[in-house]
Amino acid sequence: MQERKFSIKIYKDYDWEIKLKTLSDYALYPEFEVEIFSIARQTIDKKIVYLFDATIEQENINIAKEDVRFNEFCKFEAFIDDGAGEKLSSEFDGTIIDALEYIQKNFAD
Question: Which of 30, 50, 67, 87 counts the most CB atoms within 10 A of its CB?
Answer without folding.
Answer: 50
